[in-house]
Amino acid sequence: MNTDPTVELSSAGSHDQSRIKEAxxxxxxxxxxxxxxxxxxxxxxxxxFLLGKDDRPVNYYTLVVFQEDAxxxxxxxxxxxxxxxxxxxxxxxxxxxxxxHWSLAEVFGHFQKLLAEKEQKSLDGSLLLGHVRPVxxxxxxxxxxxxxxxxxxxxxxxxxxxxxxxxxxxxVIEFFDESKxxxxxxxxxxxxxxxxxxxxELSGTDxxxxxxxxxxxxxxxxxxxxxxxxxxPRADRVGIHxxxxxxxxxxxxxxxxxRSVFDGNLLCLxxxxxxx
Length: 276
Hints:
By secondary structure, the protein is an alpha+beta fold. It folds into two domains: 5-222, no CATH class; 226-273, no CATH class. Helices cover 20% and strands 34% of the residues. Strands 1, 2, 3, 4, 5, 8, 9 and 10 form an eight-stranded mixed β-sheet that branches. A hairpin with a 6-residue loop joins strand 1 (42-51) and strand 2 (58-67). The N and C termini lie far apart (59 Å).
């Protein structure tokens, strides 16, 4: 009889991780589907990475954004013009940022390989990701990453590291690096600040606001299937008109949740379904 509780905990954790992987795989394939969240044709990948003496790129933060008008091609654009930038203090490390595109078939193939790898992971066979784990899907509302005033919408910090696609919300599937191990863990405050500033300047991603995302890989699915909606308040009810994506032939059954807030106080909650 085994009396070591750590073995049971490890086994339970492994089982939970297996279930998360299965759920993430289902969500990924469903989100890619035409008309589920949008009508995607490919994706844009922007990767910030560190290079050491061996010139093997180590992921600092990578964002994969699904797009409807993706320009598929094999060319790679380096946003760091000289290829890489030497850090201020740890001068044996350099920062690089590059951008390229994948077709839906390519990104799905790389995602499946990533999900199947058990130890040291890589995105495409070259970019080292460390020991990242997938986490359940997240819904990220549209909104500013920082709230500047009391009349501004609520802050959504995650949007600091996502690409703004009009004013649409997004679903994200994230591979999270919990260890935050070498090389970015020992970076001094000066180097962290330098890296964050360069990444924001060159790619628009602001890791200074959400440092826990350092080392992560994020797949972003903008929700473009709902193009817009208008409210039509009446004396006894509120009507909502939804503008669907022009490629969507038959709008799906929809459930709407309404929250009424006045002067910071929650007045009521409501829920309704589309008329049949």
